[in-house]
Amino acid sequence: xxxxxxxxxxQLSDVGTIQVRAIRADDRERILGLFNRLxxxxxxxxxxxxxxxxxxxELTLYTQLDFDERVALVAxxxxxxxxxxxxxxxxRRIPDADPPCAELAFAVEDVYQGxxxxxxxxxxxxxxxxxxxxxxxEGRILPGNSHFLAFLEKSGFPIxxxxxxxxxxxxxxxxx
Length: 176
Ligand SMILES: CC(C)(COP(=O)(O)OP(=O)(O)OC[C@H]1O[C@@H](n2cnc3c(N)ncnc32)[C@H](O)[C@@H]1OP(=O)(O)O)[C@@H](O)C(=O)NCCC(=O)NCCS
Fold this sequence. Notes:
- The protein is an alpha+beta fold and 176 residues long.
- It has one domain: Aminopeptidase.
- Helix content is 28%, strand content 32%.
- The chain contains five helices and eight strands; from the N terminus they run E-E-H-H-H-E-E-E-H-E-H-E-E.
- Strands 1-2-3-4-5-6-8-7 form an eight-stranded mixed β-sheet, with helices on both faces.
- Coenzyme A binds at residues 13, 42, 45-46, 105-108, 113-119, 141, 145, 147-148, 150-151, 154.
């Protein structure tokens, strides 16, 4: 599977569908647009700090991926010049982890939350990860991020709490 060209259609939980595709180097402006539309709360839960901007280096880091160590899928609405990213799910392989493991990060635009976009991104990320030998995802979340915990619990994958690291709650999600 060529995950750099990954594309799928996700059924939303209310009505309709949304396109999911691999992130691309030309998504810088669209990622910045998403960041600028996120509420402070969502930014805080995503980055674990009250971040107000994304640097050029961060935009490069978030959009130019090798699709082996680092993979990201975006959910988009519209097309051509009007295409907008409304959600991102990504993982980063944790070096030398046994079993092979990758750390997750997600952000869905607030007005689009609760419609199944995060779940769709997770399902397709798990497909890509399994193909590259990853059997476990790790989620590190701020204590109090009950939405993300509920989101993991709803995923259908077995999850387990691992304790804390640097003030964050650690959860493992067994995908294989
Ligand atoms: C967590 C997050 C990615 C979930 O994405 P989403 O598209 O809203 O998730 P889904 O619509 O697929 O929801 C799946 C389940 O998660 C739970 N959930 C999601 N959003 C919720 C909310 N606002 N309130 C309560 N539960 C919620 C529900 O159990 C839901 O299942 P249900 O709709 O059958 O009840 C999104 O809320 C988000 O971007 N949060 C802020 C950033 C963050 O916390 N990132 C994680 C750390 S990196």
